[in-house]
Amino acid sequence: MIPSDQHLQIGSLLFPGLDQIDLTGPLEVLSVIPNSTYQVIAATKAPIKDLHGLSMNADKTFDEVGQLDVLHVPGGPGQQALMEDETFLSFIRNQAEGAQFVFSVCTGALLCGAAGLLKGRKATTHWSAFHLLPYFGATPVNERVVIDGNWVFAAGVTSGIDGALQLAAMLRGQRVAEQIQLYMQYHPEPPFDSGTPERAPVEVLEAARNAAGELTARRLETAKAISAKLGIDPAGEGV
After folding, report:
1. CATH class for the region spanning 8-230
2. Going by DSSP bridges, is the β-strand pair 8-13/151-154 parallel, antiparallel, or unpaired?
3. Measured between alpha carbons, how far is 105 from 127 in angstroms, rounded to an integer?
4. Helices (H) and strands (E) in the chain, counts
5. Is 122 helix (H, G, I), strand (E, B) or coil?
6. Which of 120, 124, 111 is nearest to 160 (CA)?
7. Which residues are within 8 A (CB) of 125 and not within 5 positions of it... i.e. 6 or more apart?
């Protein structure tokens, strides 16, 4: 836990085509961390649309923000277009170097991998991209939230809320995290038991895989190219 009198700078990345819940779910938690400043950061202050067309604006651009104590990297389909964007990747890389915690949600893990930051780490990501983690030197762990040192990885989409609450406890203690959880009335009782590949009906899983098939294939090709560039053997050698 970080001393309560230490002011924290917390920042979430925003980019076109992200899944807004990867951003706004954790935002609900991170924006009320005691004695902190929370900001949304992007390459531009112009409106940015998520994958469903929701328009959002950043508080600061990459050039305007100082060193963050907590860097939050969301994911979503728009991640694919940034896997070789050195401006975006270098911002993640530079901030991660000085941050006290890095928090990845969903396929934000792939962006961290493209920045060369997953080598030797235990990590998770959305189930559709889980098999890609070894291409970035990571050890995949099939859990909703994975903590490796000062890195917190949340799996897909809504798991970002779980990860943010765990991060809140790491920053300010369990009691603070519990108070945030209570305010949010976060006590999920889903109407169906279809929230993971292991539990979803076969036909539901197959339909979901087919829907994501084209993007998954493109992600695989990108992962292979980045793996070669980073000198990583996804089978384990050279990691």
Report:
1. alpha beta
2. unpaired
3. 12
4. 6, 11
5. strand
6. 124
7. 75, 104, 106, 107, 108, 109, 110, 132, 133, 153, 155, 156
Q: Is the pTM of this model over 0.90?
A: yes
* Residue 19 vs residues 73, 94, 95, 117: alpha-carbon distances, Å: 11, 24, 22, 22
Residue in the block written with tokens 């292979």: 224
Q: Which residue in the list 42, 106, 171, 230 is annotated as catalytic?
A: 106
Q: Tens digit of pLDDT for each residue in 44-65?
A: 999 999 999 999 999 999 999 9
Token pair in block for residue 42: 């992007």
Q: Is 106 part of the annotated catalytic residue set?
A: yes
DSSP 75: -
Name residue, tokens 């993007």. 215
Q: Which of 71, 54, 48, 70 is nearest to 2 (CA)?
A: 70
Contact 144, 154 (CB under 8 A): yes
Which residue type occupies 36?
Answer: S
